[in-house]
Amino acid sequence: MIENVLHPRIIENKEWATVLFVMSFATIALTKSVFENRFSDFINLIFSDKYTKVYRDSIHLKSGFTISLFLVQVISLAFFIQLSLSHFGYASKTDWIQYIQIITFLFFFILSKFLIEKIIATAFNMEEFVEQFNLQKVTYRTYVGLFLLPINVILFYNDSISRSFLLVIIAFILIINILIYIVSIKNYQNLIFSKLFYFILYLCALEIAPYYFMYYWFTKGIA
How far apart are CA 221 and CA 184, in angstroms? Predict the structure, then answer.
């Protein structure tokens, strides 16, 4: 007598990711149609500094263009974090609950950091500088986030990506972030030197310490 053993078939749910990818690309397309000239300058950011010169006023930090592409950047970054954790065995790339946890943490981290920056900037009388400095960082990081989006699509739907490929992307993102700081500091060097002490406090308290504690928490959490 032949005994049949039934094994449950596990079907990964990828529909939620597909919806988010489509929404992200749709947001980019809509932003491009509404802000056609600005989007064109933004896309050429890697070849020209026209965008940063034209849109350097801090009022652009809260514009519809910046906010819409910033949301796409956060969605893209959250995907990349989950895909990286999944590749190294710390998460599942198709787990939408984990994605919600990651993107919620990102929004909470970014919002908390922004509010603390506003408080410190007001206390040190350097609001305009901090807002312009943040606008530069948001601009370049959003640029990276948009180009990271199609890479996320490849990583999500392809199960044969090598670890070396992922490590190259992570190294590239880290290098780009370092270059962003260098470019931003260079663009505002005169103002920075006039408030050097306050800038060092700002850099240590809000640009180094949060990421150090995140790294410490993450490494201890998975140890």
Answer: 33
